[in-house]
Automatic annotation (TrEMBL):
Matching Pfam families: NTP_transf_3
Similarity remark: Belongs to the MobA family.
Protein's cellular compartments: Cytoplasm
Domain notes per entry: The N-terminal domain determines nucleotide recognition and specific binding, while the C-terminal domain determines the specific binding to the target protein.
Keyword Transmembrane helix tagged: no
GO annotation, biological process: Mo-molybdopterin cofactor biosynthetic process
Protein name in the entry: Probable molybdenum cofactor guanylyltransferase
Domain MobA-like NTP transferase: 6-163
């Protein structure tokens, strides 16, 4: 079985939230630390995917990080940076803005993983399209992303749709909830 590394996507600009979503506290610690703890039992090692500014802020941190290596919009930058950093590993990718995520979903992804496919992901909350921000990306997906970027395609969801991916039904759709702005966070807290 291919080595499985963890990757917490924290490198977004968090413009709608107005503050770094990876540092929001939902479970008595910053979200990036909570997700790291959730992923550790499944992964050889867990990294934070960070942008250049975050890398400077975390210079004294012992947490392993992968700095965005490309000038790409969105989460594809972090995913491609990880697949480039260790192209022999599969990557268990989790977005930092999923505060309802539990081991229920992580277990389902690991049990449903198909290494012969490019990736294993859930259908999104509408049950129609792949959810690209929570899934396992196999090493073979790296060259696919590189070619897509050369062709001007930056959507991980589009790449999952166009390539051979294992699509699973989420055991609890609430766990896929993204909290991207203060009003969504307020609703979650109420």
């Amino acid at each position: 079985m291919t080595k499985l590394n963890g990757l917490i996507l924290t490198g977004g600009r968090s413009m709608r939230m107005g503050q770094d979503k990876s540092q929001l506290v939902y479970h008595e610690k910053p979200q990036r630390e909570h997700l790291t703890d959730l992923l550790k039992p499944y992964c050889s090692v867990v990294y934070w995917s960070v942008n250049v500014a975050q890398a400077h802020e975390l210079a004294d941190s012992e947490q392993l990080r992968i700095v965005d290596a490309f000038d790409l919009p969105g989460p594809l930058n972090g995913i491609l940076s990880a697949l480039t950093y260790d192209p022999e590993a599969a990557w268990f990718v989790v977005a930092c803005d999923m505060p309802l995520l539990t081991v229920l979903s992580l277990d389902a992804l690991v049990k449903g993983r198909n290494e012969a496919k490019m990736a294993t992901v859930f259908y999104d909350s509408d049950g129609q399209l792949p959810e690209p921000l929570l899934g396992i990306y196999e090493p073979a997906f790296g060259p696919v992303i590189q070619q897509a970027v050369k062709n001007g395609v930056y959507s991980p969801r589009q790449l999952l749709q166009q390539n051979d991916s294992q699509l699973l039904t989420a055991p609890d759709l609430r766990e896929l909830t993204n909290i991207n702005d203060p009003s969504a966070r307020a609703k979650l807290d109420s």
